[in-house]
Amino acid sequence: MTAEWQDEPVCLATWSPEWAARAERWLDELDIVLATWRSGGREHVGSTSVPGLMAKPIVDLLVGVRRIEGLEAADAPLARAGWHHVPIPSPHQEVRRHYVRAEHGRRAGHLHLVVPGQATWSTFLEFRERLREDPALVRAYGRTKAELAVVHHNERLRYTDSKAGFIEDALRGGARGAAPIPLPFANFWRSSASWRVRWALLHKRVAFTSISVDLGAGAQHDPEHRRRNPIGHVPAIEIAPGRWLGESMAILEWLEDSFPDPPLFPSDPWGKARVRQLCETINAGVQPLQNLAVLERAAPDQVGRVAWARHFVTRGLTAYEELLGAFESEGRGAFSWGDRLSAADLFLVPQVAAARRWGVDLEPLPRVRAVDEAARATPHAEAAHLHGP
């Protein structure tokens, strides 16, 4: 067996129903391979067994056996079926025997042979059931996993060990619905980019601590903020100690990957691409052209700056209106895409607010106005919009 998979980095993925199908297929195969040693149940466990929970795409299987002693006799038939014995540290080796299945040079499955009724067996099943029963616990565990995956990206064993405290607390009932540690969030109340990320954080129920960066006072140029984001933009968010992520689109996509429920992007590739297109129509085609740094270069006085901003905001929102019209044949609903809030709406609403500040005529944009109204009526929309320091 190659060692290619042994030191692979920790990479989390959005939950997939394919993991459950794969688990059932492999368990059926193992019923035959392990017929001589089997006793008790066989279960799909671990993070891949919990719908909605992000996980390493490695399916964990728990299979009951009569005894651990003498199980080395199962190594050869399991190896022929693709499962290879990997010793685990004492004292765990006395209560379970561990196997790994690798595909395309990466771990694809873990097999745990355990005597039913032992503490290890009960722990696997009890933690799975607690997660399945408690969406708040799933969110808290997902947040913990996302943070640890960043900190221990290249240290798989340390990543696994670092989750132990959460699991123990959950089994005692202490982590059920527990509030996670808030993410430090550097932002400015009038920044439309900050607004859209603040909205995403609230929508996904991700706790955060606000750090004000006063753009009007030039705080974006302070060395402390430049360490968060070298270009000085807001927002920026600290996803793990010392790891700051800047730029609103990057932050929203990280949030979507790390906290997939509730989603802000469609699951199908075409819908996801369309939402990104709408986001970038605002993010790249409108919002930067009204920023203070651009306006100061564009015109020497306020009259010229207002004319500049109105021109580019009108151009961009007119394009957005045309896109909304084109999407009607693709099933567009009350929102920018479909019948629920998406990342595109989080980009559009702050831009419409900015358009009103610039005195842009929105009357020729009925679809934009309708989407803006629908999005503002959703939960968290008002809380995301700050009105001043």
Question: Helices and strands in order, then pairings?
Answer:
Elements: H1 17-33, E1 38-45, E2 59-65, H2 75-80, E3 84-85, E4 96-103, E5 106-114, H3 119-133, H4 135-151, H5 156-162, H6 164-171, E6 183-187, H7 192-203, E7 208-212, H8 223-228, E8 236-240, E9 243-246, H9 248-258, H10 269-283, H11 292-298, H12 302-327, H13 343-358, H14 366-376, H15 381-384
Helix pairs in contact: 7-9, 7-13, 10-13, 12-13, 13-14
What structural keywords apply?
Beta Polymerase, domain 2, 5-stranded mixed beta sheet, alpha+beta, 4-stranded mixed beta sheet, 15 helices, 46% helix, elongated
What's the CATH superfamily of the domain at 17-171, by name?
Answer: Beta Polymerase, domain 2
DSSP summary, beta strand count? 9
Strand content: 5-15%
Shape: elongated
- Give the H and E element order: HEEHEEEHHHHEHEHEEHHHHHHH
Q: What is the alpha-carbon Rg in Å?
A: 26 Å
Mean pLDDT, all residues:
91
User: How far apart are the termini?
Assistant: 61 Å
Q: In what order do the strands lie side by side in the largest sheet? A: 1-2-5-4-3
Which CATH top level class of the domain at 17-171 fits?
A: Alpha Beta
The CATH architecture of the domain at 17-171 can be given as 2-Layer Sandwich
The largest pleated sheet is described as: 5 strands, mixed
